[in-house]
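Notebook entry, structure prediction.
Reason for the run: the old model in the group folder had no record of what sequence produced it. Starting over properly, with the input documented here first.
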Amino acid sequence: MTKTIDIGIDFPKNPSPDAMNSYSEAMQDYLMHSKISVIIEVLIFILIGIVYFSYLKRKWAFQALQQEIALQQEVVLNEAETTVFKQPKLDVYLHFHTVNEKNIHLVQPLAREIWNECYKDILDKDQINYMIDMMYNPNKVNEGIANGETWEILKIDNIPSGYLHYYFNKEENIVYLSKIYLKSNNQTKGIGQMMMNRVIDFAQKNQAKFIQLTVNKNNQKAIRFYEKNGFRNVESKVFEIGNGYVMDDYIYRKTL
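New structure, fully documented this time:
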């Protein structure tokens, strides 16, 4: 028959280090004032050591798990921000043409065609026409070019199919991607990724810290594309553009 020794201590399931110290002192005091054999004393101290070690082992394992999770999260975020996707292999002829006096007449009609497809479910037609006339008239485009901004028309098999507008702000050390547009019938061929890579290469050559762009809050297709390329939403902003119209946009930024 087993005899139970009552020393007046109740061990919880997960004792703290301070609690274990107090339990140890209480046990030592009990043993010093009780007539218990050395073997029993040793067994009791071994039991205390096992309980304490189990507690520390669980604590260390939990801390190691937290550190590993934090490390993996950091790795994933860094990879997302620094990833540059490979150029797709295409079976069509592509060429970027710098906008100049010989081809500037192509910009506004191309923008009108793409915008009426891209924004037909987001903006009303009157606002689309107003913004095309305001942002893409030849005087506005020429003004940007004169200020060192890059305007490019993308031709696919010699057909104007997309365009880019971007520039480097040296004081802010930011490349602003103002416009990246492609006809919808070419958007699943990897061409849009090639256009983005062109801007990323430009930013890296200029040692820019960020690439920044704005996107309409309801343009989910574009948002998914930007986030795939490591852009992150940093701000929500409404821009007044005149004639009672506004642009309700997110500001996205990619760290280089």
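Summary: Residues 2 and 40 are 13 Å apart (CA to CA).
The old model has been moved to the deprecated folder.
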